[in-house]
Amino acid sequence: MTAPRYNDVKIGDALPSLTLPAINRTTLALYAGASGDHNPIHIDIDFARKARMPDVFAHGMLSAAYLGRLVAGWVPQTQIRSLAIRFTGITHVGNQPTCTGEVVEKFEADGEMRVKVSIKCSNQYGEDKLIGEAVVALA
Predict the structure, then answer these.
(1) Domain MaoC-like, which positions (predicted)?
(2) Which CATH superfamily is 6-137 part of?
(3) pTM score, whole prediction
């Protein structure tokens, strides 16, 4: 992977977007197994309906991982200095996540040239499900 260079990055530049397959029950079961998060709200439809939800829905941290993948697809993981995320909506079964990012600030910190990137994960209807920011060091 060739990371972008600080002098080549401009405020307003977009990261290459990351579009994932629609969330399905297999995705949720695999994530539950991999993460150890077996909360029944994400895998048991009867439990979800008792909680007044129409169906199971994605783990918030699954979408957070997708945002991490977006940033790590732009720069090597070793260059990521921070990743902050806020959950803003539920990702339902059938939602197709798309992660996007935009450079919003350039600065120097701790002897490194860094950029702040606004990131978000939305569904196919343009509804934001997670928003946040990442700070990365660039050469």
Answers:
(1) 23-117
(2) Hotdog Thioesterase (3.10.129.10)
(3) 0.96
